[in-house]
Amino acid sequence: MLESLLHNLAVVDDFLWGPWTMVFLGGVSVFFTIRSGLFQITGLGYILRNTIGYIGSAPAASKARLMSPVQAAATSLAGTVGMGNMAGVATALSVGGPGAIFWMWIMAIFGMMSKTAEITLGVYYRQRGSDGEMRGGPQYTIRRGLGWTSLSVLFSAGMLINAVVAASLLQAHTVGRALRASYDLDPYFVTGSMGIVTALVVLGGARRIGRFSERLVPIMTLIYLAGGLIVIAANFEALPGVMRSIISHAFSASATIGGTAGVAVSTAIKQGMARGMLSNEAGLGTAPIVHATAQTDHPFQQGVWGAFEVFFDTIVICSITAFAILCTGAMSSGESGIELLLSAFIHVLPMSAASIIVSGSIATFCLSTQIGFYVIFETSLVNLVGTRPTRVLRWFYFVPGVVFAGFSDVDQLWVLANIAVAVVSIPNLVAMLCLSGVFVTLMRDEMTGQRVYATANMRGNDALLQGFGARPTTYPSQ
Length: 478
Known about the structure:
Layout: H1 2-16, H2 19-35, H3 39-42, H4 44-49, H5 52-55, H6 69-80, H7 83-96, H8 99-124, E1 127-128, E2 134-135, H9 138-146, H10 149-183, H11 187-202, H12 206-234, H13 239-249, E3 254-255, E4 262-263, H14 265-280, H15 287-291, H16 299-303, H17 305-328, H18 337-346, H19 351-385, H20 387-393, H21 399-403, H22 413-434, H23 436-447, H24 452-459, H25 462-465
Antiparallel strand pairs: 1-2, 3-4
Helix pairs in contact: 1-22, 2-8, 2-14, 2-22, 6-12, 6-17, 6-19, 7-14, 7-17, 7-18, 8-13, 8-14, 8-17, 8-23, 9-10, 9-22, 10-11, 10-19, 10-22, 11-19, 12-17, 12-19, 17-18, 18-19, 19-20
């Protein structure tokens, strides 16, 4: 019976993540790129000033229960940067060949605007709860912007499943299995420790999550990037050939690892698009939930962090993984997934150093994902059952990772997580399209310097705020 259930789930997963879903996701990204006037290119200066240029001068969030813009971006990246940047890219290469990386880049460039749009809308339609916490995201955008309560509930239910399965359970299980294989550590000890650390951070509220992420994300990414750059630098002479391989194989058949079979261009496109979408989560609805907790003067000002996140996650981190594998010739090893990445690092670094970097990156990436996704879990839970029941039910988030720690294989549960992501992404994309006019109005309000939104919000003028788009309840002042 279990095998039959898993088979049926796999069939549903294949259907939901078929070509039409990829086309829809990609199409929405292209749509917002056009509607914004290619803003990821024409507005590059504004994006850089309000993201990288904002980091050094960014004030801490001065008002209770709100993250700073930088903390919100770090928390969002904490939930995004993970195994997909490592094992996911390696798998895309082994299945789709070097050409998959080209299509991954293309989707990331377009995805910069779809993520900007969903974050902007998420901040605009956010709402302060009875417990004083600011919450937002697609479930609030759908309900407050379109009045579709049932679809808002469906989104929250799907996101709840995704958070529990993909973030709480599978991230902890991945770390437990990896550290057991490398250092013979008890998986229950590992996952239990992760649960305690996660609880100590997330139960302190959004501000503590933001402060923790602001410190952890730069450290964990710098260590991984440093290791990857060392591997690439040691094989610097191979870079021109790697670039030629990526571009040529994007439009012509290539060989799989070991050169045993041809990879069709369609496979390279599918693998690259999938990695470009699922790694940075543009259009999937996760980032707006986190960014809705940020203190910001204008929704679009916070929204452009989405463009930065997509670029950093995919163009930088995923590319480092890809170049490390391709420059070393590790694809001829016959490995796939995380083993393929480890093989690339071993080509240059001692086995012990390579193992520490890869295992350490797995542990920190998974921990950061588990912490970052708690905001998504709690927001979805509040939207379903309210604030009071959430105070009790939120403890469930820490249970699955520990309970399933000793199970040898729970990878089948990734299918359930994939289905949940598809279920939530479609309503989010539909809502984004329906409210695209609101996004464009907010973008123009900020870029023309009129800043009607900021003035109205500061004065609590809800009638003026509603001129941007339907919003049935008074927008709370920050």
